[in-house]
Amino acid sequence: MLLSIVTFIMQCTLTLVPQCHCTKYFEDFVVIFHGFEFSTSPRSFLHVLTCYSVNLTDAPKIDLGVSMKSLMTVKAGVNVCLEAVVSGKPFPKVSWKKNGNEVVPADGFKITTTRSLCTLELYSVQRKETGEYSIFAENPSGSKSAHVKLKVLEAPTIVIDPTVKEGLTVKAGDTIVITATSILGKPPPKSAWSKGGKYFKPSDIVQIEDTPTSSILSVKYATRKDSGEYTITASNPFGIKEENVRVKVLDVPGPPGPIEVSNVSSEKVTLSWSCCLWDEMLKPSACSGGS
Fold it and tell me: Where would you tag: which of 28, 146, 157, 270 has the fewest CB atoms within 10 A of its CB?
């Protein structure tokens, strides 16, 4: 509250006015009149009037909406509007911050301030928008702040090591290693590896190394039967994500199948058999051999 003293000289004509003490209120200041004594006969006079000018100021106040007074949890991709009713005299200067850093209007953000309502709008929020948002109000009488915590939940995402994304070829006896370099989501998803609909479990041959954001599958002593499509699945309450990797194991030819003897003569004989090869689709196909 600011106080200043102003002196006025007023000329008045009064008849009978008792000694008085009164206060006059104006929009922006208060005037206090002190002690007049007059005689019973009318007369004009000059009187020095001292006015105390009081500027009526209020410190800032911030009122958050009910939904903003606790943790706000939203799904990724939606629009979010943070609102606060701000008051004070004179009207405060208002600013927004996220995790202590000032928020400025940009793509995906919009700040609006009216005479009483201040809003921060966030469009198509993603996990990176998670954090603490603060509104600050300041005027000559003081400052005020309020805080809102925003948590953005999102479905899982998976990134496979690009060196094996298009397919992995290993020699028999080597170790098959497939790495999911990034598994993200909020809440953190659970992940699992499978092949042909059967999920892998850790064993002497199979190893699974999980971190909060990645997973590595290792299969030792690879054989031809380990060829096929490997799948990693990540899931949380907001969705399921799968990524596939094709694995081809190169092995020496297996023993020939039953040998058939034909075209026997005194000079020659024809021997025929079948074997198993693996084509690009990792499916067996028959072939035949000769004498």
Answer: 28
Is 290 domain-assigned? no
What is the phi/psi pair of residue 223, to 5°? -125, 175
Nearest to 205 by CA among 174, 168, 228, 238: 174
In 3D, which of 133, 116, 112, 105 has the Cα closest to residue 60? 116
3-state secondary structure 105-151: CECCEEEEECCCEEEEEECCCCHHHCEEEEEEEEECCEEEEEEEEEE
Summarize pLDDT for 158-213 with one digit per residue, the tens. 999 888 888 999 999 999 999 999 999 988 999 999 999 999 999 999 999 999 99
Per-residue burial over 256-291, b = 16 or more CB atoms within 10 Å of its CB, e = otherwise: eeeeeeeeeeeeeeeebeeeeeeeeeeeeeeeeeee
Instruction: Provide the CATH number for the domain around residue 189.
Output: 2.60.40.10
Percent of the chain clearing pLDDT 70 (strictly above): 74
Range of the domain at 138: 58-154
Q: Are residues 84 and 100 in the same domain?
A: yes
Q: Give yes or no for residue 280 having a pLDDT over 50.
A: no
The helix or strand, by DSSP H or E, that contains position 164, with its residue range, turns out to be helix 162-165
State how many domains the chain has.
3
Q: What is the token pair recorded at 74? A: 């939203």
Tell me if 119 is assigned to some domain. yes
